[in-house]
Amino acid sequence: MFRKKxxxxxxxxxxxxxxxxxxxxxxNAVNGDLxxxxxxxxxxxxxxxxxxxxxxxxxxxxxxxxxxxxxxxxIMELIKKLDDVLDGIEACASRFEMYQISKSDPFIRKFxxxxxxxxxxxxxxxFLLTQKKLLAIQPHCVTINELENEGDELMRQGxxxxxxxxxDPIELIKHKExxxxxxxxxxxxxxxxxxxxxxxxxxS
Length: 204
Description:
By secondary structure, the chain is mainly alpha-helical. It contains six helices and no strands. It has helices spanning 7-30, 37-64, 72-98, 106-130, 138-165, 169-203. The longest helix is centred in the C-terminal third of the chain and has 35 residues, at 169-203.
């Protein structure tokens, strides 16, 4: 069904590597305090730029390639959803800088762990795609969906905790938005899984 691995699959693998590296760095950073939030935000922005370069390569190659390893629309949708994950992580990091939040909390740390697990599943699934092992992707998509549900619950519990314990309304608003941004990033991971499942259905 597929030709030998080409620029599309190589670039998708590179994107998956960047996502895992970015999310792993994010999770490690929020696992403690963040004394230099400006440097942290800048570092996450640099990762996001790496992802943008992968997206640019894919779009450029699509414009000049007649035969692609999977449907052109699937490649475009997949790279877009992968890019959304990086955009989400960068947006979260930028809020730490904008709001000058240099201390993490248990909910942010749990989100970091959840997202790192999701990124690992995404990376594994993308590499299975490039190895043409389509049916083996499905369990990883299921796990990503379960992790998205975990993100939903984390946001609900986190916001409940804020309203019960935080008296400063400004601090409450800051943390509430960060929780919501983190949850939206788990949604983006689920979007990747849904796109992969569509590819499986069309190519199996």
